[in-house]
Amino acid sequence: MKLSLRIWRQKDRNTPGRFVSYEVDGVTPDMSFLEMLDVLNEDLTTRGEEPVAFEHDCREGICGSCGFLIDGVPHGPRRHTTVCQLHMRFFKGGDSLTLEPWRARAFPVVRDLVVDRSAFDRIIQAGGYISAPTGSAPDANAILVPKEAADTAFDAAACIGCGACVASCPNAAAMLFTAAKVAHLNSLPQGQPERDERTLNMVAAMGREVFGTCSNHGECEAVCPKGIPLEFIAALNRDVIRAAFRRRREPLHVIGAAQHPAHEDVCESNSAQKESST
Amino acid sequence: MAATEAIPTTVWRTNPVAALWSTMVGKKVVMAVTGAVLVAFVIGHMLGNLKIFLGAEAIDTYAVFLRTMGEPLVPYSVLLWVVRIVLLTCVALHITAAVQLTRMNWAARPESYDTKQSIATTYAARTTRWSGVILVLFIVYHLLHLTAGRVGFRAGEFQHLSVYHNVVTGFSVWYVALFYVVAMACLCLHLDHGIWSALQTLGWNDARSTPLFRALSRVTALAVFLGFISVPVAVLAGWVR
Asked: Which of A213, A238, A247, A276 to mutate to probe the B interface, most B CBs <10 Å?
């Protein structure tokens, strides 16, 4: 079958982009959407044109690399499906589709349909971990986890960080992503020691990355390829309130030797830096 | 030394309200709590209005009661003023948080989509900001109209504490009554999204209770709408005169 595509083309972050129309022929129903774009790119390459850049890795719907809007819906019209798992049998020959990258201040377009999602990495870095001694694997039953808590954590951990929630949100909020990452660890016994710290730090990171706020539209839930529900956002809100009310004292900051590096140390590190830079 | 960029750490205030206000989620919590106070007021106000159907004496006595309640512990009309000040504070906080959050949301998507479909959101959710703006204008008009008697009445027509007389005279002007009905439609939309949204923001719902809360939100919004418009409609229809 034959399709008309209107694709956002943008050379790099600083060059303004525009839509360009393409015709793709020889599309078969068993192709995935990305394979259809591969066909287009092969055609563009043979004609000496620049291929359309899109992100992809596993093509199994589990890595979270791919994603763009098809006719105004992140990951296209099928629910619980990433674009790599979206097959062309759900489209008709002669369809004309608009492909557009995620749009959010926190997700600058790198090229064509590729956006920079490192803002998500920085939210994870702010608290998406537990501090535990490593070593040999502990006994499976050493820490008992209630079944429902394990299921909740597992459902939350299904988030692949594709960014469709931000893309679909009228406010470009990263609440569903952050809620999933917070719920993943906050619902497990292993996550309890750092629970309040984690919640507050990840929410603060979300604000620093200039994501928007939640207006409870539910668009994120509708496009999430992993079907992460809105209730996780309620749980995040609950945890934020809990964390704010449980803080009774600030840790003491005693200005001691540790905070005041000796003069020689500073000079040493300065000279070391100079050496490495030359 | 490794060239890893340190993650900036936020110093959290121990005062929970200050800590919350410094986050986006916390500002939403402020909106939810102040909204809850205002919803409670709106329901009480609506129930009070229905006394008009019991006759002039019933509602006029009720108006006096609102000023004498708490006596002799608190002097005449002091408790009413306390309630008014609390409500105005809630309105101010609700609007402040709404403006700040809206500005954050607009900043988060500087470039809008060429093609964007809404899948899950409702008309009420998408228009919450604008129904809120209309409600602010309505509240100003309503206070000048039926509370202060400064607008919508001919000179000497408004009589303090003669609620029945004032309501019937005020709503006899059809476009004033129509404005009230339109404003209450906005309130209905605002509550349909707002009540559910407040419960979600406070994190009271889970998978089991979400449909229940959404239904509660809609039923409350419709009950408030029907309760409020019953008065101007009854006056225009001549059932109350």
From this structure: A213
